[in-house]
Amino acid sequence: MNLPTINPSPSTAKVPTTPSKKHLLDLSAEEIGDWLAERGHPKFRGGQILHWVYQRRVRCFDEMSDLPKSLREELESCFQIYVTQSDATVTSPDGTDKLLVRLPDGGEVECVLLRDGTRRSICVSSQVGCAMGCVFCASGLDGVDRNLTKGEILEQMLLLQDRLPEDERLSHIVMMGMGEPLANLDRVLGALSVAKDEKGLGISPRRITISTVGLPPAIDRLKDAKVPYNLAVSLHAPNDALRSELVPVNKKIGINAVLDAADRYFESSGRRLTFEYVLLGGVNDSEDEAKQLVSLLRKRNVMLNVIPYNPVSGLPYVTPTKKSIAEFRQTLERGGVNVKFRQRKGSEIDAACGQLRRNRGKQVSSP
Ligand code: SAH
Fold first, then answer.
1. Burial classification of residue 278, based on how many CB atoms lie within 10 Å of its CB (0-12 exposed, 13-18 middle, 19 or more buried)
2. Last residue of a domain, one of 58, 80, 102
3. Quick one: 51 and 95 in the same domain?
4. Catalytic pick from 108, 110, 180, 289?
5. Residue 113, class by beta-carbon neighbours within 10 Å (0-12 exposed, 13-18 middle, 19+ buried)?
6. Residue spans of alpha helices (H) in 79-149
7. Which atom of ligand 1 is nearest to the CA of 312?
8. Which of the four pLDDT bands, split at 50, 70 and 90, describes residue 259?
9. 140, 131 Cβ separation under 8 angstroms
10. pLDDT (0 to 100) of residue 94
11. Same structural domain, 124 and 63
């Protein structure tokens, strides 16, 4: 199989050079407090600033009307609240908005807002590109460029929150955009700690899901962080031979090590695990594969999320037929596995990660 080029290692991915102004969203409340104190301002102003940014959704310091004008000017000369530009926005009739976000160094990532009943879920990127090389995925076709900063991850959340009317709030976050969140774990955890904070976005960790290709040491580090985020593991195959073809990092890891790490996470967090399985026509959708999945998952307290493939132009994979999707489902349900077949929400706007970036110029429209 023709594998995409993979850059050496996500841990060596560069971070951008520091611009002349600091990105406010990179700083913690304490760091803002320290900055204020160093300049003779009361530390509590830090709470006011963050309230304006996360709850009142302002984009410039001048609108922070309860701060002294001189402080607003000082902040303006040292910090930027937003550093990105949303280059293209595509809105789908099913209530899904997708943003292509241009970073200060020209890199691009994608993020999505999904409206479903009262839910307002967002899907956020963690890296520019991806080093995991999953053969069916658009995000990793050119390898990884760099890790996103904490501020760049948070900024995607704010850009998507901005698309909601004032009386609507974000309810769920999935780290399922471009990149491998566990290869950029410190920054992802930094951003999520603001997302879950009452003074930040106020989203319960139980409504936040981190999706991973399955990197056992990083799953253990996430477990040790002791915050009950949901863990989703992208399985995509029930045996090592097939998984190593579809998810090349599996060659060095193996399904058993991934499942063991996921079990440890479950034992420690008490959160039911999710496994994701992208269903590729004629590749991983046979009855035999469904039966193998049953024996892997039946005894575990898991939800299996089956996602019919969203085709990527230039790649040879196809969505399975309705008949084979139904048969796959029946085998799993008869085998006693909790299974959800995910709707292809937003598929007409390329909601599978990495596709909007690849197709830019061909079909995007303005907000
Ligand atoms: N790197 C992480 C998170 C990003 S991908 C991970 O692997 O989990 C989020 C999910 O979307 C993964 O399960 C991924 O395999 C799936 N995905 C990627 N491309 C897809 C496509 N074209 N159609 C359907 N799902 C896709």
1. buried
2. 80
3. no
4. 110
5. buried
6. none
7. 22
8. very high
9. yes
10. 81
11. no
Residues with CB under 6 A from ligand 1: 132, 134, 136-137, 176, 180, 211-213, 234, 276, 278, 307, 309-310, 312, 352-353
Q: How is residue 334 written in tokens?
A: 């008869």
Give the whole-angstrom CA distance, residue 302 versus residue 30. Answer: 38
Q: At 302, phi and psi to the nearest 5?
A: -135, 160
Helices 185-196 and 150-161, axial angle in degrees (round to 10): 40
The tokens for 3 are 């594998």
Confidence tier at 74 by pLDDT (50, 70, 90): very high
Q: Is 108 a catalytic residue?
A: no
Angle at 181 between CA 209 and CA 350, to 5 degrees: 75
The closest residue, in CA terms, to atom 10 on ligand 1 is 176
Token digits of residue 290: 């469904």
Q: Which pLDDT band holds residue 86 (cuts at 50, 70, 90)?
A: confident
- At residue 345, the pLDDT reads 54
Same domain, 253 and 299: yes
Average pLDDT over residues 321-327: 95
> Do 198 and 228 belong together in one domain?
yes
Given a cut of 60, is residue 356 above it in pLDDT?
A: no
For residues 45 and 134, membership in a common domain is answered with: no
How far apart CA 79 and CA 31 sit, in angstroms, is 13
Name the range with the highest mean pLDDT among 11-15, 303-307, 340-344.
303-307
pLDDT tens profile 8-62:
333 334 444 445 899 999 999 999 999 999 999 999 999 999 999 999 999 999 9
Q: Global pTM?
A: 0.91
Does residue 73 carry a catalytic annotation? no
Q: How far apart are CA 68 and CA 54, in angstroms?
A: 20
| Per-residue b or e along 21-58, where b marks 16 or more CB atoms closer than 10 Å to that residue's CB | ebbbbbbebeebbebbeeeebeeebbeebbebbbeeeb
Give 18 Cα–ligand 1 centroid separation in angstroms.
31
Residue 1: the pLDDT is: 27
Q: Whose CA is nearest to atom 22 of ligand 1?
A: 310
